[in-house]
Amino acid sequence: MNPTRQDRDRDGSNPQEGAGPGQDFAGLPGGAKAALEAVLMVLDEPAMEEELAAGVGLTIPAVRSLLAEIQRDYNGYTVNAPEMESASSAGIGSSPRGFELRNIAGGWRIYSRAEFADIVGKYVLEGQTARLTQAALETLAVIAYRQPVSRARVSAIRGVNVDSVVRTLAQRGLIEDAGTDPESGAILYRTTSYFLERMGISSVGDLPQLSPHLPGLDGIAEFYDAETM
Fold this sequence. Notes:
The protein is an alpha+beta fold and 229 residues long. It has helices at residues 5-11, 31-41, 49-56, 60-74, 84-89, 117-125, 134-146, 151-158, 163-171, 193-199, 220-224; strands at 99-104, 107-112, 149-150, 175-180, 187-191. The strands form 2 sheets. A 3-stranded antiparallel β-sheet has the order 3-5-4. α2 (31-41) packs across α4 (60-74).
């Protein structure tokens, strides 16, 4: 049975609808959808739709459509709603996968599901010292909420020297150089897209508000604006 025009357009095998110039997915198992999925499987950081489109050889609208379809597949929605009951009884693709496709930090990537965090964490981290220390977490929190900020300012807020902690955070890819302070010339730091990815948020604007959890902050500006050495 020959595929319909709609099927060809959806998987990107029709060069006029979705595929880039000279790109043909007809000879590949699963077509353009499988090609995009193969790329997603090897990403070590979220990729934007434009990057995926350029890498696979599809138009951005085609990639956007396929991403939504792959996301539905992983969530278990592999058949149309009216057919779900009969499909479930027949054992056809109604169970969600142990992984999911997320749009985080401005890009797309495949992740294990949050419900399996304990199992995955035990498998990956058992016997390793991968967790940040309390000092590192506190320093990272200050940088996240005050960025861009210098080490001296972070030290003033925390009341301790943070040079070694800042180096550790930079080595782990959680913070990065954000230029220099125009007045003091000190190096400024900000969080990275990897930080957003690990936090599971799209931007620092999604960080929880601190004020409800920190009563009695009268005069806190004095600490933020304290002169540094």
